[in-house]
């Protein structure tokens, strides 16, 4: 059975929040990842792919996510809401979607109530406590906007501010993007306040000195 591709706006959203990595790296859960957030038995550390291959992997991954959406949603679904839900499934997994209040409300015909549920999926457990992660807050807001209005706007990159750049000397934008993928924030290559806050939370969750600086100890723990 052929799965209808997701809309272009959803593809752009996923690309924006996942970032593109042509060399495999370990995600925060220790899973080898490559391309636009692709994982699986075909990914191993040390491998590299082309941008064209990353596009192919993303198309397959989003088709799989869309198939989950099509399986569980029992009401008519325009392409933009479908794309928003495919991004949600791509990020959180089909199990989370299948058991979600978001899906239940949507299938009851409460589209507005379902849209409000996106904002509930922004937390991660850090130091035994559930806290909002900036990257998830931004992604859920973008998905909700796409779900409701069919449009979303990328978070603008912050203007360079020397006092906000606290990554170790010698870090280039690609390394900063890898850090941003690991801690779950927008991959813009700028080590600004939101990235620092996410690094602090990541350090605390991994029982490291939570100072927001990716020094040798934190870098080793991140697999950099």
Automatic annotation (TrEMBL):
UniProt EC number: 3.2.1.17
Gene3D superfamilies on file: 1.10.530.40, PGBD-like superfamily/PGBD (1.10.101.10)
InterPro entries reported for this sequence: Bacteriophage_GH24, Endolysin_autolysin, Endolysin_T4_type, Glyco_hydro_24, Lysozyme-like_dom_sf, Lysozyme_dom_sf, Peptidoglycan-bd-like, PGBD-like_sf
Origin: domain of life: Bacteria
Molecular function GO terms recorded: lysozyme activity
Peptidoglycan binding-like domain mapped to chain residues: 186-222
Acetylation keyword on record: no
CDD domains: lyz_endolysin_autolysin
A biological process term (GO) from this entry: killing of cells of another organism
Catalytic activity, as annotated: Hydrolysis of (1->4)-beta-linkages between N-acetylmuramic acid and N-acetyl-D-glucosamine residues in a peptidoglycan and between N-acetyl-D-glucosamine residues in chitodextrins
Keyword terms, alphabetized: Antimicrobial, Bacteriolytic enzyme, Glycosidase, Host cytoplasm, Hydrolase
HAMAP family linked to this entry: ENDOLYSIN_T4, SAR_ENDOLYSIN
PANTHER family, A to Z: LYSOZYME RRRD-RELATED, PTHR38107
Family under the similarity heading: Belongs to the glycosyl hydrolase 24 family.
Protein name per UniProt: Lysozyme
Source species of the chain: Azospirillum oryzae
């Amino acid at each position: 059975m052929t799965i209808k591709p997701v809309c272009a706006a959803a593809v752009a959203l996923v690309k924006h929040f996942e970032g593109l990595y042509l060399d495999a790296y370990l995600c925060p859960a220790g899973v080898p990842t490559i391309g636009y957030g692709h994982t699986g038995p075909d990914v191993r550390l040390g491998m590299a792919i082309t941008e064209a291959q990353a596009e192919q992997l993303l198309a397959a991954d989003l088709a799989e996510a869309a198939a989950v959406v099509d399986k569980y949603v029992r009401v008519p679904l325009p392409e933009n809401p479908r794309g928003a839900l495919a991004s949600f499934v791509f990020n959180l997994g089909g199990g989370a979607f299948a058991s979600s209040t978001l899906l239940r409300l949507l299938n009851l015909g409460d589209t507005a109530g379902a849209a409000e549920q996106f904002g509930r999926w922004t937390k991660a457990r850090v130091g035994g406590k559930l806290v909002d992660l900036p990257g998830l807050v931004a992604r859920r807001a973008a998905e909700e906007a796409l779900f409701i209005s069919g449009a979303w706007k990328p978070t603008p990159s912050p203007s360079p501010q020397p006092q906000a750049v606290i990554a170790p000397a010698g870090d280039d934008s690609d390394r900063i993007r890898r850090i941003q993928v690991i801690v779950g924030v927008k991959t813009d290559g700028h080590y600004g306040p939101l990235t620092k806050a996410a690094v602090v939370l990541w350090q605390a969750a991994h029982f490291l000195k939570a100072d927001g600086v990716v020094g040798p100890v934190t870098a080793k723990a991140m697999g950099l």
